[in-house]
Amino acid sequence: VLGTRHLVKVDYQPGHRRPLTAGAAGRTILAHLDPPPVPVDDPGRLAEIRARGHDYSHDELRAGVSGMAAPVFSPAGVEAALSVVVPVSRDDDLTTWLPALTTAAHKLTARLGGHPHP
To answer: Among 2, 78, 91, 110, which is least packed by CB within 10 angstroms?
Structure first.
């Protein structure tokens, strides 16, 4: 969903592909796949993401963009990551979205009949 309150926006098109190892959403999914399907440079970071329940990225997938993501689970395991992305000029605003982001990810998980990763 594209925001409407600000002039500067981040617009990822449906179907845009990114590596799992880069960006908050990809790493959030990767952190919950065991074993990881791709080589991982920093397994400790994936463990931190699992423990924290979300991830943050800054200038990784697109210059000038920060993002935050939380995992969504089905009974089969991690299904997706729900994310919020903003221009780096609004990076401070990003953390204010964390409670809503994690709540929404938990609600989607419940609707899918999944359970958050222990």
So the answer is: 2
